[in-house]
Structures are given as C-alpha cells and as structure tokens.
Amino acid sequence: MANVPEKLHYSKDHEWVRVEGETGTVGITDHAQHALGDVVYVELPKVGDKFEAHEAFGSVESVKAVSELFSPVSGVVTEVNESLQDEPEKVNTDPYGEAWMIRIRVGSAGEVDGLLSSAEYEDYLKAETE
Amino acid sequence: MLAKVGLNSIEELFTSIPEDIRLRAPLNVPHALSELEMLARFEEIAGRNTAARRPSFLGAGAYAHYSPTVVDHLISRSEFFTAYTPYQPEISQGTLQAIFEFQTLCCQLTGMEVANASMYDGSTALAEAVMMSERITRRSRVVVSPAVHPEYLEVVQTYVQHAGIELVRAEFNEGTGQTDLTDDAILNDAAALVVQSPNFFGSIENLNRMADRAHQAGALFIVCVTESISFGLLRSPGACDADIVVAEGQSFGVPVSFGGPFVGLFATREKYARQMPGRLVGTAFDKEGRRGFVLTLATREQHIRREKATSNICTNQGLVALAATVYLTTMGRRGIEEVATQCAQKAAYAARRISALDGFSLPYSAPRFNEFVVCGPQAADGLLRRLAEERNITGGLALSRYFPDKPNDFLVCCTEMNTRAEIDNLVNGLSSLI
To answer: A62: nearest CA in chain B?
Structure first.
C-alpha cells in the first residue's frame, strides 16, 4: 500500500502539495513514483514561471515512460529543487521529502479546497485500483 | 485480376477521381526500346550535359571534393545498403556502430561533446538548432547573421513561422564581409545568435567574440558550417565556445549532383543533450559484458513523447552519414587537414590573380577559407554565362540571385579538384571577356 502522509493535499494527477503560509511545496506521490518505476530524469521549470492549477509544469522520465507533472495549485515558482538534476533517483526513495520538485507562491488560500485530503486520496487510489 | 477484385474495367479503379480531371487520352510515352537502344539513347542525352564536365568554381553550399573509391565501395556493401536504417540492436550492430563512429567524428570535428545520428541536411539541422535554443532558453527571439546562406535562412523561416519564433537579422559589415553586432541592444532577450563561418560570402567570422556577446545576453551561440572541409584548418566552433554546431556534411565523400543527397551534422554540449533533436546511438553492455550499440535518450523522440518531442525527425540520413564516416576515417586527421590546406591555398592563389585584373576587386577584407566574393566591372550573371559559353568554365555564382543590390558580385570557390591550369584559365577567361 502506498504511503500517503497526512497534512498534505493531493491531486488526482498524483501530485502532492504542502502549504505553509503563502508557499506551496509540490512533488509526486509515493503511488506515482512506484507506478513510474526507476526515475532517470526530472525536467523542472524556472523560478518566476507562472502556472495555473492542473497546468503541466515539467515532466518526469522513468525507464518506462515520460509523464507530465501537473501543478496542483496556481501560482509563481519561487524555488526549484536543482538537486534532482543529478540525483533523480531521490524521487523513488523519498518522494515526500528530498524529492520535492518546486515551491510555488500560491495564488490564494482557497487553492487547496479543490484538492483531496490524505484520506480522500487513499480512497481515490483504492477506487482506481479496484 | 479485375475479376478478383470484382471490377469490370480498369476505369472503375479510378471512380474516386473526379471525371473532369481524369486523363482521357493515352499517355504520351515513347515506344519501348531494347536495352541496347535504351543505353545508346541515354548516353546521347547525358552527352548533352556539358555543364557537368566543365571546370567549375561553384560552391555556395555544395562543394566538389575528391571522394576516394573506397567510399562508394564500402557504402554499397549489402550489409549497409538497405532501403531503411534498421535500429533494432539485435540485428543492427554494424549499422549502429557506424552511426556511433559518425557521432564521434562529428564531436571531434566540431569540438563538441555530443552529436546525433545526423539530420536531413545542414539547413534543416540549423532550423532544429534554432528551435532547440527556444526550448532551452524559453525565449522566442533569434538573431541571425545576414551572412548565413540565404537558402538556409529560408528553411529556418519555414520551420519557425508557426512556432512563435521571431527571426531578427543582424547587420552586415560591407568592409570586412562579416556579421556586424555593433547594435548593443540587438541580443537583448534573444534565445540564440546564429552565425555561419566561413560565411556565405566566404569570410571567416570572429566566433570567439560573438560567443562572448551571445553569452553576455544569456543567449545560446549557434554556429553553422556549410563547407565542412574547413574543420580541417580552422579552430573548431567548440573551442570558440559554441553551444550548438550544425554543418552540412556533403563535402565528406558525397559528390555534387542535382539537389543532393546531403547530410546534416548536429552537435551540442552534453548539458543540452536532452533537448537535442534526432536519433542518438550510445554504447551498452550485454549480459556477457560485451560492448554493444543501442539507441539512447529515445524519450526525446515522438514515438514516446508524442507532440512534446524535441523534433519530428524519426530517422537519420543513414547512407550519406555512412559515406561521411568512411571518408573521414579514410582521410584521417592529416588527410582532412591536407585537403583543407589545398583548398585554402588554391583559393588564395585564385583571389590574388583575379584581383590583379583590371576592373576586378575583392570587396571584403576578412580572412577567407576557400570561397571569396569578386566584384567585376559589369553584371556578373552575363559575365559568367559568357564564360561558360565561350570558355567552357563555370566561374562561380552571381550573387544577384539572392542579393539584387550586388549585381556585379560573384562568389568563387576553389577545392583540391581545381588544378592550377583551371585557375589560370579562369583568370584569362575573365580578363578576355571584359
């Protein structure tokens, strides 16, 4: 069973966001990294780029496939995890920690309302696999 | 056969074609000939093509160099001579190794870190380089030297016109014959600066200085080479800090003929490899530890990344790239240097003799490789036509074809194929016709 930490918000595209003040930290879920397989490359945006919710902000490449990364919230990129350029395998080993991908200045506090809680995401995964 | 497909006449096969555009009369084709008659007929037609046997000083993007006989011999071997390049490693180690060696040679020539399996030709390689610079910098303004081959610029324009990329032309220095970047603001917010060297007018550009200017503005520096033999003598674009190098490889063992074939070289820095177009062969090891060759970084390509692929090219210019590989391997480092030196020395001799003629001058002062512009005392197209008709010499290219404001200018190219006697005949011919 995939690891789904509490206190994070989840999208149906299998991204997570942790909101602290105005800043949202975004990554992909444990379920997503497991489905992708060994990640070999992560393509990320630049600081200052602006994204709408559900817009593609980059891509993640595994030995199996290339998948787009969709931003769970709208906002402006304030920080990018450059360490993933050299160590993309962190996405597999620590998807909720070291393998955070971007930090976004979140458009508004209501941004996360449309996202799933950890319990809802677990149900969503269950429904998806059934 | 008609009965098998349930039809009564040949005409019924064409019912999907509207009546009014269908051919009603029999095709106007000559009656059948025996093999003997046909060979005689074709030899007679070919014999009328005197232009192909004239001494020629045409360059401008296609160059007549000597191709050792081993090139045609090896590329015609049945192991290589297929209609399509097979890429499956299980059955294609020979082809893949040849491509890998081609890539290695491209890197050595250009001074770059990674090269792809080849592009269709130099002009499409340049267009791909321009689009790659947009992906890397996320800027959409590309500054091009006006001394890039005009047909290359047309191809680039065709590629980018619907991609939201704007091409901006830099100025041209009419004294040196080089690109002029004195306009300080021109590179602001540019994705790339594109320069050809030696440029269309034969002038060698100051690549180091232009690389600095491009990089100061945060732009990539793209170098384009149409005469790849120049790699044998000039400092490599990689050593001059280029980010992407594209070149036409026809000079390497491929004869000039109507419209090709050509082959594009494409090389860049390793950090940009994931944004590179085209196929890429790498080495791998099988389960017994033996070295093998496979396509790699295929996730850039459209069979995986669909519309987000770096390019729509799904192939390479296999046979022509193989010819270039055999040519380069046969000639070796010293051989290419020797060919390049001969080209440069013969061009220098021709330039010196022509500029000594009354009424002829060399308008540009920059260093040259094997091509140079001559300004004559009368319209160049008429002069060159008379040179061909009366002296049986193809004297070069009248620049009025691309630059109506340069009616008296023509571009002369020398390669190792031009003998001293041919050059002397050119000089005497020019002097006698004015």
So the answer is: B299
CB contact under 8 Å between B304 and A41, yes or no, is no
Give the integer Cα–Cα distance in Å for B79 and B82: 7
pLDDT digits (tens, 9 = 90+) for B341-391: 999 999 999 999 999 999 999 999 999 999 999 999 999 999 999 999 999
Who among A46, A59, A68 is closest to B138 (CB)?
A: A46
B4 in A contact zone (CB under 8 Å) = no
The pLDDT tens digits for B196-231 are 999 999 999 999 999 999 999 999 999 999 999 999
How close, in Å, is residue A55 to chain B by CA atoms? 14
| Fold (topology level) of A12-129 | OB fold (Dihydrolipoamide Acetyltransferase, E2P) (2.40.50)
Helix axis angle, B150-160 relative to B122-137, nearest 10°? 50
Report the complex ipTM. Answer: 0.71
pTM above 0.95, yes or no: no
Q: Which CATH class for the B56-66+333-433 domain?
A: alpha beta
Q: Is A50 on the interface with B (CB under 8 A)?
A: no
Long-range contacts of B158-167 (CB under 8 A, 24+ apart): B158/B127, B159/B124, B159/B127, B159/B128, B159/B130, B159/B131, B160/B127, B160/B130, B160/B131, B163/B131, B163/B134, B164/B140, B165/B130, B165/B131, B165/B134, B165/B140, B165/B141, B165/B191, B166/B140, B166/B141, B166/B142, B167/B130, B167/B142
Q: Would the CB atoms of B299 and A41 count as touching at under 8 Å?
A: yes
Contact (CB<8Å) A65/B304:
yes
Residue B304 contacts A, CB cutoff 8 Å: yes
Which two tokens mark B114? 């990674």
Domain boundaries in chain A? 12-129
Residue B84: its pLDDT value, please?
Answer: 65
Cβ-based neighbours of A5, under 8 Å, separated by 6 or more? A96, A118
Q: Which residue has the tokens 């070289």?
A: B265
* Cα angle: A69, vertex B303, A90; to 5 degrees: 35
Facing B304 at nearest CB: one of A41, A66, A68: A66
- What mean pLDDT is predicted for residues A72-100? 95
pLDDT band at residue B260 using 50, 70 and 90 as cut-offs: confident
pLDDT in tens, B67-116: 999 999 999 998 887 656 677 888 889 999 999 999 999 999 999 999 99
Domain residue limits, chain B: 56-66+333-433, 69-327
Chain B closest-CA separation from residue A99 CA (Å): 21
From A58, which residue of chain B is nearest by alpha-carbon distance? B308
Contacts A37 to B, Cβ<8 Å: none
Q: Do B305 and A43 touch (CB under 8 A)?
A: no
CATH number of B69-327: 3.40.640.10
Chain B residue numbers with beta carbons less than 8 Å from the beta carbon of A59 are: 308
Q: What angle do CA B365, B406, B231 make, to 5 degrees?
A: 45
